[in-house]
Amino acid sequence: MDHDRLVSALAAFAVLDPTHFPLHFAQIFLVVAQNEPCTFQKVMEALDLTNSAVSRTVMALGQTSRKGTPGFDLMYVAKDPKEGRRLIIFLTPKGKALYRQLTSI
Q: Is residue 68 a contact partner of residue 89, using CB atoms and an 8 Å limit?
């Protein structure tokens, strides 16, 4: 990706909330989008993060953050129907729209 495309892609994230959208939020969003449905394990391995770091970020990217404040509503978590103890991550319609915008840059 060239510099101009990278700037455009980052701008797509910046409109969400430029002061409260850290880079690792974007990284986790992209891993989930490229691997949907995605397990926490896949995100942990792809970015060398702990389960708690992934969990906190996924909550913030969901409908409500862990502190009860509104999240970004880009993804949601559901139980894996094949393995009840495992959670899988999906993009919301808003998350899918953002990913389509990013892939068209």
A: no
